[in-house]
Amino acid sequence: MTGGEHFAVEVADGRYVRVITAGPPDGLALVFHTGTPAGLLEYAPLVDAAAANGLRVVMYGRPGYGTSDPLPGRRVADAAADVSAVLDQIGAARCVTAGWSGGGPHALATA
Questions:
Q1: What is the mean pLDDT of residues 51-56?
Q2: CA distances from 78 to 29, 36, 75, 82 (A)
Q3: Which pLDDT belongs to residue 2?
């Protein structure tokens, strides 16, 4: 199941981050953080497995990656505020999070 939604979300400081969501719109959000550096692309095996378990995959381009606006001096902990803005935009009251490689610390910051 690919072909999710692609859109931009304005975060608290006026920057924009690019977002992809895929899977059941009413599913529990799975915020997935890709490795470093990585583009914002749907990874079909992840999306398919998540959707089969009722999860909606949510991915965003970290600041300065792809077409997401940069955030000079960014720290890993800054991911939490960006993810919060994304979840607010899609109406997700809660989420689970995961990440691989350089995305692992961002998943921890999100949690």
A1: 97
A2: 19, 16, 5, 7
A3: 59
- For residues 16-34, one letter each, b for 16 or more C-beta atoms within 10 angstroms of the residue's C-beta and e for the rest, the string is ebbbbbbbeeebbbbbbbb
Please report the pLDDT score of residue 41 as a whole number: 86
For residue 6, the number of C-alpha atoms closer than 13 Å in the C-beta half-sphere is: 9
Handedness of CA 11, 77, 93, 48 (dihedral sign): positive
Amino acid at 103: G
For residue 24, how far is the Cα from the chain centroid?
A: 15
| pLDDT in the model for residue 39 | 79
* Residue at 29: amino acid letter: A
Report helix, strand or coil for 41: coil
> Around Cβ 45, how many Cβ atoms within 10 Å?
7
The gap from C-alpha 72 to its chain's centroid, in whole angstroms, comes to 20
pLDDT tens digits along 58-95: 999 999 999 999 999 999 999 999 999 999 999 999 99
